[in-house]
Amino acid sequence: MSDATTQPRSNTSAGTISGATIRADEAAHFGKLAKDWWDPKGSSAMLHRLNPVRLQFLREAIDLHWAGDIEARRPLAGKSALDVGCGAGLLCEPLARLGADVTGVDAAPENAAAAAVHAEGAGFDIRYIAGEVGALDLGTFDLVTAMEVIEHVADKRAFVAALAARLAPGGLMVLSTPNRTPQSRLLMVGAAEGLGLIPKGTHHWNDFITPEELGELLGEAGLEMGEPRGIGFSPAKGLHLSDDLALNYIVTARAR
């Protein structure tokens, strides 16, 4: 099936915003994984491998955006951060270590609950909320992240608009997502789920979004997308930042 004939699972037509982004089946799927989200050898093992790569990009983006000290251990001290689609907090806790006042939002109540329990045990004061990000009275944040989330939402345009509404003036947004390419269909859906590296049903290739499409959505929301970096895989390097965008990519966005 070519990209031209690919249809997303959303019922939202082009040019409209439904306002609802959560898919009940997606929330239920990830909610079932809550109990072993923090197990590096469990169902979320791939996210544990991916997290250091995302954090490498994120740290560089933070330093560049705020012209901070690259040696500082807490470059987000005094700043607020919102992680949307936070799961059980794999990114929220590192953001707290970097000094941020962190809020995590997830569609699955089971994930928000698991995240809160883990954070308390680790000594982090992180606020976790389950619900629709666009419907929550959250205020604005200096840093907004949504990692491996937009491919799961029902209305991508509404989701990006909701993220943009949560970004404070002068703030930074960082998103990562699989690209919709033949390579991602073969490796991320066919091979990874077929071999059990990712739980079956995690990905729906038709819902993957290209960098060009994401850039258009961000532009509509008044944001400018930075140069995307690929997240590639090789037997020698494992998951790593790359110039190859074929599988997965990560980008910054900020107000124009």
TrEMBL record:
Protein species of origin: Qipengyuania flava
Any one Gene Ontology molecular-function term assigned to this protein's record: 3-demethylubiquinol 3-O-methyltransferase activity
Methyltransferase among keywords: yes
Reactions it catalyzes: a 3-demethylubiquinol + S-adenosyl-L-methionine = a ubiquinol + S-adenosyl-L-homocysteine + H(+); a 3-(all-trans-polyprenyl)benzene-1,2-diol + S-adenosyl-L-methionine = a 2-methoxy-6-(all-trans-polyprenyl)phenol + S-adenosyl-L-homocysteine + H(+)
Function in brief: O-methyltransferase that catalyzes the 2 O-methylation steps in the ubiquinone biosynthetic pathway.
GO terms (BP aspect): methylation
Family statement: Belongs to the methyltransferase superfamily. UbiG/COQ3 family.
A Pfam family it matches: Methyltransf_23
Transmembrane segments: none
Keyword field contains Transferase: yes
Entry's EC annotation: 2.1.1.222, 2.1.1.64
Protein name: Ubiquinone biosynthesis O-methyltransferase
